[in-house]
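Input chain follows. Return C-alpha cells only.
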Amino acid sequence: MSSLFGPMIQQGYVVPDMDGALRHWLDRGVGPFYLIAPFELDALHYGTPTTCHMTAAFACSGDQQIELIQPLSGSGPNVYDDYLCKYPEGGLQHLASWCDDVDSKLTQLTAAGIDYVLAQRYPASHAYLDLGRSPGVMIQLMPMLQRYLDLYDACRSAAAAWDGKSDPVRRLPEAVRAGDWAHPT
C-alpha cells in the first residue's frame, strides 16, 4: 500500500489500439471488459483547458481493475497523447487510488511538502499526478463517487463469475457511453 495515497486499486494502460489491447488482456484470461464507446471530457491539462476524446474499457483481475484508454483524434492536449508520444506502443500510464475528496488530498499533499505536478484534472472528478523528484507512472486520485464504485463492483463481480469465453467485451449503456460516468450529477 502506498503510504501517501492508500491502496492502489487500478492499473491504467494507455493504448494506441483498443481492439489489440483487449485481445492482449483477454488472451491472458483477464475479463470480461466493459467498453465505453467514444466520448469527450473537458479537463485541465497542466492547468490549461482542453477536451479529451477517447474510448475506455474496464475489467478486474481479483481486486485490481485494469483500465484501457485509447485517445482519439480531435482531442486537445492530454496526458494520454503525451504518453503515446513517448511510448508509441502504449503501456502502464497510471496507478489509481481511491480518495474521499480529490481537492482535500491535493491540499494534504501540498501541506506535507510532497513535490507533485498536477498533470491533468477533470473538474469535480479525478486527477492525474506525477511526482516532481521521481517522474514516471502517474498516480490517479479517484474520488469515491457512486458511479465509479458501481463500475468497479460490476467489473469485480463479472470477473469472478466469468467462464473466460462468453461475452468477453460488453458495452456499457448509452448514458455511460456519453461520458456521464466521469462527472458527478
